[in-house]
Amino acid sequence: MSTSSSPTASIGPGGEDKAAQEEAIRERAAAAPTGDPVSPRPYDPADKDFQDPILTKGDVTVYTPTVSSSGVTVPVTVLNRGKKAAFYDVTLKVTGPGGFDADLDIRIRGAGLSPNATWPTELTATDPGKSVPAEPVISVKKIDKRPYGTD
Questions:
Q1: Rounded distance, CA 131 to CA 134, Å?
Q2: What is the pLDDT of residues 55-108, one digit of tens each?
Q3: Residue 76: partners with Cβ closer than 8 Å, 6 or more residues away
């Protein structure tokens, strides 16, 4: 008596066979947009976006913004000047003529920002229905710094 076996497909959690799942993953990866990550990005003091500070308050430095038709992009760094890792909640205010008024929030969590480490980012302010100001006014509204290990 001989037994024959037929090939079996590996079935995934959604009922699809594993080969179909892998092919779908390859297709999505091939179709995904390419580009640089928006933030955070490695801090490079030579980067043109981080060369002209316009405001420093505590551990937060704001650099010259870029104005476009879609909003005001504000480069910011947070430098932990403390001796312990810390969590941050930072709010920036961007205002301008015609009632343009937007808050930008930075939240640093995880294990916190290590001492002497810098967290660079760029945030874009928009205010639906308002014109983007040619010369925005940027201020630091809030800096909440909590050392790691405290609640």
A1: 9
A2: 999 999 999 999 999 999 999 999 999 999 999 999 999 999 999 999 999 999
A3: 60, 61, 62, 63, 90, 92, 104, 106, 120, 121, 122, 123
**Nearest CA to 138 among 96, 77, 79, 78?**
96
* Helix or strand run (H / E) with residue 107: strand 100-113
Query: What number of CA atoms fall less than 13 Å from residue 38's CA on the CB side?
Result: 5
Joined together, the tokens standing for residue 148 give 């790691």
In three-state secondary structure terms, 9 is coil
Q: Three-state secondary structure along the chain?
A: CCCCCCCCCCECCCCCEHHHHHHHHHHHHHHCCCCCCCCCCCCCCCCHHHCCEEEEECCEEEECCEEECCEEEEEEEEECCCCCCEEEEEEEEEEEHHHEEEEEEEEEEEEEECCCCEEEEEEEECCCCCCCCCCCEEEEEEEEEEECCCC
